[in-house]
């Protein structure tokens, strides 16, 4: 198995045992995008959100991710179309009626220029009046420096048994670097480093205004006091 395949497999395994405990986000996205016939999901990964949106209604959902290996793990669902591409240079034309940028994807773009380019591209492929919904987290802002610690231990049948996820945090001026090791029977299967920009460094309302959007509102969490550290920005393409 290649390093990219290990990464995709263990990304999916992590989501199964960690993010899918946070079950209120997929019903939230489903309700939010219900009126839309053509939905774009940027940073779709292995399809956790995009798959739920495609299953909820007869419509076209386009799932964009940089990783072909992650996209290859998306279950085949009618109406769901995986596309390998960079959200800063979308290999798509419009018009889409809505775009979702779920679960802190925008916070993986480390420079203001990259974030502005991604939202400019999002505006380009949306219809006039189309909406964008961006999920970010405040929790990275409070991350402190830590040494290696066990964050998850669960069976992964595709890896041959129990897998452990270990991580340590290294805060920087505008982002936190979270290093991860995935271990099986004492052997490191793969290592990744994720760099998450702090919410306070995003200036998201200003960037939306510069890229042709009107900010409509901000939700805290997904309703019913779920995940209050998360903020979902809602905006509409002006022209």
Offer a quick outline of the entry:
24% of the residues lie in helices and 38% in strands. It is α/β, with parallel strands linked by helices.
Largest sheet: 7 strands, mixed
Computed structural class: alpha/beta
Structurally, the number of domains stands at 2
Radius of gyration: 18 Å
General description of the model:
- This protein is α/β, with parallel strands linked by helices and 239 residues long.
- It folds into two domains: 1-136 and 198-235, Rossmann fold (3-Layer(aba) Sandwich), CATH 3.40.50.150; 144-195.
- Helices cover 24% and strands 38% of the residues.
- It has six helices and eleven strands.
- It has helices at residues 3-17, 25-33, 48-56, 68-71, 112-125, 204-210, and strands spanning 38-42, 60-65, 80-84, 96-101, 126-137, 149-156, 161-171, 175-184, 187-197, 213-220, 230-237.
- The strands form two sheets. Strands 3-2-1-4-5-11-10 form a seven-stranded mixed β-sheet, sandwiched between helices.
- Helix 3 (48-56) links the parallel strand 1 and strand 2 (60-65).
- The longest helix is centred in the first third of the chain and has 15 residues, at 3-17.
